[in-house]
Design a protein that fits this description.
Layout (H helix, E strand, L loop, with lengths): L1 E5 L7 H15 L3 E6 L8 H6 L4 E3 L9 H13 L3 E5 L1 H11 L6 E5 L10 H7 L7 E4 L2 H10 L7 E3 L20 E5 L8 H15 L4 E5 L6 H16 L6 E5 L4 H6 L4 E3 L8 H8 L4 E4 L4 H5 L5 E4 L4 H13 L2 H18 L2 H20 L1
Parallel strand pairs: 1-2, 1-4, 2-3, 4-5, 5-6, 6-7, 8-9, 9-10, 11-12, 12-13
Helix pairs in contact: 1-14, 3-4, 7-8, 7-12, 10-13
Length: about 375
């Protein structure tokens, strides 16, 4: 198949990681894959596509909603005569829907984040209503699928769940020394990742239980005002409660596999998630996971098989999970680690991920053939 894959950028986000895994996997299986994006300056994953000789078409976006992007995308699709277009994320999907509207170009769109507990804004509902233009809507978590079914019943027939994949060769267990009192956290420093909740939990462990844990947080800081203000608030909170010696900002990293290989556990306190890469990569690395009970986390963790879950709004519940894991029997942690790796091998493989998309492509194209 000749495929065009559309996304905002190749920055270091989770959606971009899955997009890159899919593009490379499809190319390795003999498909002719090309990529279109509108923020070419964010190119964290670009070398991986270049290594697979996947062309990248830059359609620069110059304003919040640049009408030139869908028009440029429409011209690109017409010029190259692709068999199918696949778009990741909300705005790229919206642009692809505008670009293919009224044409006979098969289109699949993919939402990558569950809806917020407070519900969708009117603007979001209007934007998502354009999914009726697409032949299929993919979501990457079962919780998200239930939300779509409730909010947009008319999309049920075109809705598909394809969960994330992880490179189980890159992310694998190691014999590195591990400190059960040190927790690794992975994620952008933004409010929905609940950094402040974890800071409070660290404080409670020290003040209530007299146990000093350490958290190492790896993830970038966004440049927008809201994210910067939140990061500054977290810095101030750490200083206020004298936790500087228990908290380490690692920044944006390219060696996440190495970080996980030496981690005793991943702690993931996010308020809003679907099927996060961080948890998948930890499981593949044989690292137990302590996560919020949101989204598909309970299914991934399957307490107490591969870790535990907690209410992210309850700081003391987070601290209790940290205490239970760290002070529990060594044999329990080892069993969790072994279970985590086995689950990743059987349920999160790249081969299965690519195969599910290929099957969907065939289903969509068969409709046009008939």
């Amino acid at each position: 198949m000749k495929l065009l894959m559309v996304i905002d950028s190749l920055g270091s986000g989770g959606a971009q990681r899955q997009f890159t895994i899919l593009a490379r996997g499809l190319a390795q299986r003999g498909h002719q894959v090309e990529v279109a994006l509108y923020y070419p300056q964010y190119d964290h994953f670009a070398p991986q596509l270049a290594a697979q000789n996947i062309p990248i078409h830059a359609l620069p976006k110059r304003s919040r909603f640049d009408v030139n992007v869908p028009f440029a995308l429409r011209r690109l699709i017409k010029q190259h005569d692709y068999d199918l277009v696949l778009a990741f994320l909300n705005t790229p999907s919206f642009y692809a829907e505008l670009a293919t509207w009224g044409t006979k170009t098969p289109l699949i769109v993919s939402e990558r984040k569950a809806y917020p507990p407070a519900g969708l804004t009117l603007r979001a509902k209007i934007q998502k209503s354009f999914h009726r233009v697409a032949d299929a809507l993919v979501v990457n978590s079962h919780v998200h699928a239930k939300q779509v079914q409730k909010q947009f019943p008319s999309f049920i027939k075109t809705l598909h769940v394809i969960t994330n994949a992880v490179d189980t060769e890159k992310f694998a267990p190691s014999n590195a020394a591990k400190d059960e009192k040190t927790f690794l956290a992975l994620g952008t420093v933004i409010p929905r990742k609940n950094v402040d909740g974890l800071i409070y939990a660290l404080m409670w462990c020290r003040d209530l239980y007299n146990v000093k844990f350490k958290v190492r947080w790896a993830g970038k800081r966004q440049t927008d005002a809201t994210s910067q203000q939140y990061a500054q608030q977290c810095d101030a909170l750490i200083a206020k409660h004298n936790l500087e010696d228990q908290w380490e900002w690692l920044g944006e990293r390219t060696d996440v596999a190495k970080l996980l290989a030496s981690a005793s556990a991943l702690i993931h306190p996010a308020h809003l998630e679907g099927f996060p890469n961080a948890i998948c990569e930890a499981l593949a690395s044989g690292v137990p996971v302590l996560a919020s009970n949101f989204g598909d986390h309970p299914m991934l963790v399957q307490e107490p098989e591969r870790g535990s879950t907690f209410d992210p709004k309850q700081d003391k519940e987070i601290s209790a999970a940290m205490m239970q894991f760290s002070l529990g029997p060594t044999e329990s942690r080892e069993k969790m680690a072994a279970n985590a790796r086995q689950f990743a091998l059987s349920e999160l493989s790249i081969d299965a991920f690519i195969g599910k998309y290929e099957k969907l492509f065939t289903q969509v194209l068969d409709k046009y053939a008939n």
